[in-house]
Amino acid sequence: MGMLLFLVCFLCFLEINEAKPKTPRGVAIPFVFDSKAVCEPPCQHAGICIRNNTCFCFKGYEGDHCQYVNCYPKCKNGGECLRPGKCRCPKGTGGKYCHEVTCDGGCWNGGECIHMNGIVKCLCTSSWTGSKCQDAICPQGCRNRGSCVAPGICSCPEGWIGGACHIAVCKHPCLNGGKCIAPNTCRCRPNYSGPQCREKRVQ
């Protein structure tokens, strides 16, 4: 009369939800089981061959032959599921499900550590740049070897001032309409000369 079918009941142990401590520890799952069934290739990860080429997979495994490991929640940021509930995380990520992104040395000045296209990096605010958001941005630029020390603020070398270190300083003022063009250097009008444009030229 064909294959002898047996009705069996397997007890699958499920994870207990911490929010529901009274949840039953097991759920009975009835299904038709053929004791002579053959599965090729064989069921993996302790899966049970219940009918020809039909595997019953336990929690944490899936696929026609229970060949795939399943992590729930899924491993994030490119993490690999090694076994149920165990992820192998790529560099720069951590946590049980690789959901935590970490940048070596941290991100400074309000920068955010992100994981994008397999690369972990700092996403900086508009006023900062650099691998750790450590370098301030001065949109106006810092001239004459000045350095940007804070957003929009230049530190100028001796002899220069101004928002972009673009104004030369002459300790002694340039006279008779002369102009300070470099530290302690005056450019005189045609009729004057000298370090401060003090001397009038004789025509």
TrEMBL record:
Domain EGF-like: 35-67, 99-134, 166-198
Disulphide bridges, residue numbers: 39-49, 57-66, 103-113, 124-133, 170-180, 188-197
Residues making up the signal peptide according to the UniProt record: 1-19
InterPro entries linked to this entry: Dev_Signal_Modulators (IPR050969), EGF (IPR000742), EGF_extracell (IPR013111)
Superkingdom of the source species: Eukaryota
Gene Ontology CC terms: cell surface; extracellular region
Alphabetized GO MF terms: activin receptor binding; nodal binding
Annotated keywords: Disulfide bond, EGF-like domain, Signal
SUPFAM superfamilies cross-referenced by the UniProt entry: EGF/Laminin (SSF57196)
Keyword Signal: yes
Biological processes annotated in GO: anterior/posterior pattern specification; blood vessel development; determination of left/right symmetry; heart development; nodal signaling pathway
Protein name: Schwann cell-specific EGF-like repeat autocrine factor
Native source organism of the sequence: Erpetoichthys calabaricus (Rope fish)
